[in-house]
Specification:
Length: 151
């Protein structure tokens, strides 16, 4: 990373649980930090489960952590993050947990130390809302789901 870029400081606690580990980037080009399971559990097809990671974080206001699926779990097993991306707010201090859902056809077993998701940090933009009677027009207008590229 260039020297002139200052990385935000994120405090972390690693809880004393089997498999709990420091989130880590797999490669220098990764954008997410792998999160590891710290509880053995089996997720049946069509079911979901909250999987603890044994990690608690403290980040500065103006950042959020997004919990995203790992593509390998989705491609190989049909397992993904249910509320992707999950949001960890800057004022949350509890354990980071991951809601995994099994869209596959077979039971999926989570083992302590298994990489189950990735955590990506993003800046938060605060806005001011202004109540208006009408909104400015746009080419798209009120075209919703599936409306782009059809004209």
């Amino acid at each position: 990373m260039p020297e002139h870029i200052v990385k935000p400081l994120v405090g972390i606690q690693i809880m004393n649980q089997p498999g709990a580990a420091m989130p880590a980037m797999a490669t220098r080009g990764s954008s997410g930090y792998d999160l590891y399971a710290c509880k053995h559990q089996t997720i049946a097809p069509g079911a979901y489960s909250m999987v603890p990671t044994g990690v608690r974080i403290s980040m500065p206001q103006g950042l959020e952590a997004q919990i995203r699926p790992r593509s390998g779990l989705a491609a190989k097993y049909g397992v993904t993050v249910l509320n992707a991306p999950g949001t960890i707010d800057s004022d949350y201090r509890g354990e980071v947990c991951v809601l995994l859902i099994n869209h596959g056809l077979a039971d999926f077993t989570v083992e302590p130390g298994m990489r189950i998701a990735q955590m990506v940090f993003s800046r938060v933009t605060e806005v001011d809302f202004r109540l208006q009677d009408t909104l400015d027009t746009s080419h798209r207008g009120e075209g919703g789901f599936g409306s782009t590229g059809t004209r």
